[in-house]
Specification:
The chain has five helices and seven strands, in the order ββαααβαβαβββ. By secondary structure, the protein is α/β, with parallel strands linked by helices. A seven-stranded mixed beta sheet has the order 1-2-3-4-5-6-7.
Amino acid sequence: MEQLKTVHVSRMTGKLEGFKSINTNTISNQFCIKQFNSEKDTICKNCYSHIMLSTFRKNMVESLERNSQLLSTTILHSQQLPTILDLYFRFASHGELINDNHFINLINICLKNELTTFALWTKRKDIVNRVLKTIDKPSNLILVFSNPIKSKILYKAPKNFDKTFNNVLENENVKEQNCTGQKCKDCLACYKFNTASVIIEKVKKY
């Protein structure tokens, strides 16, 4: 009997030290490629993931590409979905939603692991809204709309989203900046429903 392929879980470092995450391959995602190469000066032009996976983190690409293929191709069997024992878990610290299948599989991971709070950052309102017309959003999933436009803070989350994540230049909205370089495990503003709904970070240079 052929062994079922399972979703790869990454152990994160740096700002995300102490977190685990389910990631996909940024540099093969057509949406990410288009945004990274766009003439518009969006935050995607500063994409840390695209830069890392193209240079000093090339060794990650193979496992992330397996996740891309696995999560986007079909709706996975429960046995292929990971069991998560963490209180808080990150979706997409690398990559972006690929298609409806991808989002449905992440929803099913939430449903399988009801004691974990999951947070997903995405710009793909189209996918989120289409899927949530037919499936209820799990109560343990926080959807964070990743605002692509720099220096233009979204103070109201789009339909179906719980929070917005915004990037401003270092000298802009200084008093409002509430993502200021601390480790995520020491903050958790993005991983709890009853904290700030508008997250503001200065644009990083890579």
